[in-house]
């Protein structure tokens, strides 16, 4: 089985960390290809960053179809471009926020999300609503740290994340913690040891869900809104997406 794990930002060190987390849980015989777009934001910390990152994500999905991938993980907690990516393939495509929230709901009756910056709280709240997780998600919290601080051991980011997780446990009465950033993928064990709760990283959860769906011989429905995109010309910088380019999605 081959799974492409897409970091939607362009920071290679974060992609390497995400790939390592994915490989750590992958089953024997599962190959993980961790990639990031060549163009786009170095971190994703706003609606604007997400919007710009989506084209790079979709390019990696289209490339993955030519590479005969069996499934895909979108490794940013905003799940940017998730539904559009599902239109491009019959293979399973799983976002890490979607995966982490669903797994957390199986482990505790209530969970809290601990993310990076305050301004992204609303993004995670909207996802919890859209995924039907509001009954389980007590609160979305932020350590208010820039995403790239996660790449710097001297930044103090880990301690601030742990402190926020403790508050989630004590003030929210959360039974589990969902980490709200792909860049936190290597922190689950250390945080769980500090706070005594299950801590769910969406990268790991998404990889296992892709493996399960592939093993069940299931894939993305092509009935209705997730059917392949309607063939039509694209112009300007997106002309390469036109069917005339020889790379029609279907």
Automatic annotation (TrEMBL):
Signal peptide bounds: none
Domain of life where this protein originates: Bacteria
Coiled-coil annotated spans: none
EC number: 5.1.99.5
Catalyses which reaction(s): D-5-benzylhydantoin = L-5-benzylhydantoin; a D-5-monosubstituted hydantoin = a L-5-monosubstituted hydantoin; D-5-isobutylhydantoin = L-5-isobutylhydantoin
One function term, GO molecular function aspect: amino-acid racemase activity
UniProt family annotation: Belongs to the HyuE racemase family.
Protein name: Hydantoin racemase
Organism annotation: Crenobacter cavernae
């Amino acid at each position: 089985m081959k799974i492409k794990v897409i970091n939607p930002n362009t920071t290679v060190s974060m992609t390497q960390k995400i790939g390592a987390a994915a490989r750590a849980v992958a089953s024997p015989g599962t190959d993980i290809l961790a990639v990031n777009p060549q163009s786009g934001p170095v971190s994703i910390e706003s609606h604007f960053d997400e919007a710009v990152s989506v084209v790079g994500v979709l390019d990696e999905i289209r490339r993955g179809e030519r590479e005969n991938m069996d499934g895909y993980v979108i490794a940013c907690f905003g799940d940017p471009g998730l539904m559009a990516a599902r239109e491009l393939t019959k293979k399973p495509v799983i976002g890490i926020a979607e995966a982490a929230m669903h797994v957390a709901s199986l482990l505790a009756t209530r969970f809290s999300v601990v993310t990076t910056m305050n301004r992204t709280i609303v993004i995670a709240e909207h996802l919890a609503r859209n995924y039907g997780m509001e009954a389980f998600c007590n609160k979305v919290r932020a350590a208010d740290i820039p995403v790239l601080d996660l790449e710097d051991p001297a930044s103090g980011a880990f301690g601030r994340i742990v402190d926020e997780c403790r508050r989630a446990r004590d003030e929210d009465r959360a039974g589990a913690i969902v980490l709200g950033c792909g860049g936190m993928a290597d922190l689950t064990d250390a945080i769980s040891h500090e706070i005594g709760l299950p801590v769910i990283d969406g990268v790991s959860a998404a990889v296992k869900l892709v493996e399960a769906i592939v093993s069940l011989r299931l894939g993305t429905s092509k009935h209705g809104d997730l059917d392949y995109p309607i063939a039509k010309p694209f112009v300007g910088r997106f002309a390469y997406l036109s069917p005339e380019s020889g790379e029609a999605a279907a």
